Amino acid sequence: MTDTRRRVKVYTLNEDRQWDDRGTGHVSSGYVERLKGTSLLVRAESDGSLLLESKINPNTAYQKQQDTLIVWSEAENYDLALSFQEKAGCDEIWEKICQVQGKDPSVDITQDVVDESEEERFDDMSSPGLELPPCELNRLEDLAELVASSLPSPLRREKLALAVENEGYIRKLLELFRVCEDLENREGLHHLYEIMKGIFLLNRTALFEVMFSDECIMDVIGCLEFDPALPQPRRHREFLTKTARFKEVIPISDPELRQKIHQTYRVQYIQDMVLPTPSVFEENMLSTLHSFIFFNKVEIVGMLQDDEKFLTDLFAQLTDEATDDDKRHELVNFLKEFCAFSQTLQPQNRDAFFKTLSNMGILPALEVILGMDDVQVRGAATDIFSYLVEYNPSMVREFVMQESQQNDDDILLINLIIEHMICDTDPELGGAVQLMGLLRTLVDPENMLATANKTEKTEFLSFFYKHCMHVLSAPLLANTTEEKPSKDDFQTSQLLALILELLTFCVEHHTYHIKNYIINKDILRRVLVLTASRHAFLALCALRFMRRIIGLKDEFYNRYIMRNFLFEPVIKAFLNNGSRYNLMNSAIIEMFEYVRVEDVKSLTAHIIENYWKALEDVDYVQTFKGLKLRYEQQRERQDNPKLDSMRSILRNHRFRRDARTLEDEEEMWFNADEDDLEDGEAVVPPSDKMKSEEDLMEPISKFMERKKLKDSEEKEVLGKSNLSGRQNPSFKLSFSGSTKTSLSSPPSSASLNPGSPGSPGSPGSPGSGARSSPSTTTVTTKGGLVGLVDYPDDDDDEEEEEEEEDGESKEDPLPPSKKSKLSS
């Protein structure tokens, strides 16, 4: 066939809610005698075999999507879709479907529109509900068709639900089911399956109450065993009565509670196993079933919570040494499921639930369980502990601080958690990761309370660093006694990485506690031993730990690093990494770049004075040369305090110089010997001939931002060779400790175009008036930078300010001959 308009792919929806491709073919429509109606036919393009034969049912909801897709649900309980190659073919078939159903082809869902007018709808609502056919064997087919036709329309669905509810129809249907099953009437059983499935989709709580009662629920499940799409019925009732067994870990004396547990299990089974996977049109039709299960669970938790005898027996048996291992395993699993049920509670009910468990002694019981050898029991206990920590970490912290007054450190609950994390036998350390997350929650100051009488943060962190931190850091200290890690296998490295992650969190969030611990125990030196690990992830964890410490810019830490020469292992790791461009290389360079950018003076001096020889040849980044420049600038300021004091004055007292003085100074600038400037001399006014303190204190609001000056200085020094003129140059001088000063200026005064756009002094510039000299400028400094900065050309402001300054100034401006040069 060559007609691509009708070329389609056929899809069916499987039980996992995924679309399966059934093949490619060509679709047509026509009357099929066997099906007694107009049908859709798809024949495979490969061999002409029939891929699909589907009758266009007047009551089936067809949906058109994305112009080339038609989706619908078949009576055999599976969803179908035709994906067309061309929109025209999709439109043709859609018109045929709408013609059969008597719908307008402009709609996208054939059964979505209720055809009744407002008056008819009002009449229908005021009229009595649907009249159901008598509940007899020979009328089951009529009833099944009535149910199927009512589901697409919300109005008819409501009427059908009221009719079934009012006439007690469900019990009559279940009596018919027993008759059909005795007679092995397969056709009747198939109709009952369709009817019962339709009643579920009515989504009515009142109907569910009847269907899930003790006398009806097993027959309801029986009806759902006879799916017409399956060759043999399923055996759900056999599983529920013979295979599934109800275990009473602690005897339940309340019959209502026992019945509710049975009912919830069976309804959950119906939802998960018995009911077919909802189609795309039925997904929202089972919301009431979900709610029924949810509220049952809430009731079960509430009834168990109120049964004090039950909970008392539960915790007594959990902690009793005489309880055998199997029994304890069942008790812990019950408690775990009990806590999982509590997640469905509203916040206020959950508060009461955990308060009840706390009063019954759940934390001491968990402490006993976690001390046992059974791995499965310990795993379930860890899950229970995680529920408690996520719900209320303060409750757990208060308990462990109270028990520390009575017990040794070894048997404290937190230390047991840390030991289980350290001793996790799982090669992937799944349990250790979970426990580390719980510890992180417990030591997180963000969820600690502060009251008028006490601060939980101070008390708990003092307790933690005194009683628990040595247990947490023990594997780290044991493995870093030499220059390389003692054990460098994958599992040990993973564990040390977890410990380092928690310590890094402490560095960021715990102030003096972790600082005292690191400095007193020399933790950082031990951590940096791990940079020699053959596992890159562990070495990077060690670098991250040091980077967080440096990022605090705390001089206590800095002095500790310098005193112990702790950059040495970092630089050794950098050199051993060689020329490889990897994460290790980038992480180390970023650390030094941070020191340079943030201008951490003590660390800069320490690095250059001790490690410059090892780093001076690294030129593929400018980080280390930039550090050297920072160091030389520091030395220069120390060697020339007068220069530093002048910079301090300029930095602290922003000012605007007299216009005439600045014009003279700029003339001197352009007349200065260019060679002298390049030799490192900069033209600046001497500090002892500046204006008075009152003039200096006048604020200026139009300076360039300080950061721009700083960035400009660094770019000029590191890109020193680029001295070419630009269209609108700005002139900046940078002082450094080197013999040459970097200068960014035009090659000569002639290279400056006085008439360039944007130059305030150019004839065509607004506000320039009759002046031919450059506009008013000012000198500022920041971190060793002296800059001549052009002001924006604002006519009115400039003229007003000049008049004010001329009126205020009582001194003559300094003549150009009095200006001096300061060499670097």
TrEMBL record:
- Under the cellular component aspect of Gene Ontology, which terms does the record hold? nucleoplasm; protein phosphatase 4 complex
Q: Which residue ranges does UniProt annotate as crossing the membrane? A: none
Region listing for Disordered, in residue ranges: 674-824
Stored Pfam families: EVH1_PP4R3, PP4R3
GO terms of molecular function: protein phosphatase activator activity
The family assignment reads: Belongs to the SMEK family.
Q: What is this protein called?
A: Serine/threonine-protein phosphatase 4 regulatory subunit 3
